[in-house]
Amino acid sequence: MPLRLILTRHAKSSWAEPGLGDHERPLNGRGRKAARAIGGWLAARGYLPGQALVSTATRTRETWQRIADTLPAPPAAEFLPSLYLAEPGEMFAALQGASAPAVMLVAHNPGSAWLARALASAPPDHPDFLRYPTGATTVLDFDLPDWQALQPGAGSVVDFIVPRELT
Known about the structure:
By secondary structure, the protein is α/β, with parallel strands linked by helices. It is 28% helix and 21% strand. It has a single domain (3-165), classed as Phosphoglycerate mutase-like (Rossmann fold). It is globular and about 45 Å long.
């Protein structure tokens, strides 16, 4: 069975409270709706994670929770401080420590966009893949024995979606 990564950038966050620190910013209404739509899309296509690695930021935690609410049997999330505004190398390291065959990683840009590009053997034919807007989600499969064997360019893009295509 191949390994599968579901890589999601957090949904649209709110800037309504100017004094709120970046780490504490929640999703806005559009983001909440988008996260649910991404979760519904994942469930409908059978892209179900067995492990969730999530940044500790409020917007990533909320994105994960709204996605998880739509999945038939979501795993408990592992909230990793190292994923907050992580560089691709930190995200890569978190993945190498994963244990489930299907892992969802919810994080931020620019790291998510860079990681998606680095892991894909070929980018999907989609105008938003390189930009990786909020809520962008890539599903990649890897023909590897375990996550420790993860290498750049080893992933085949199975699917890619952005929320505006679903809402």
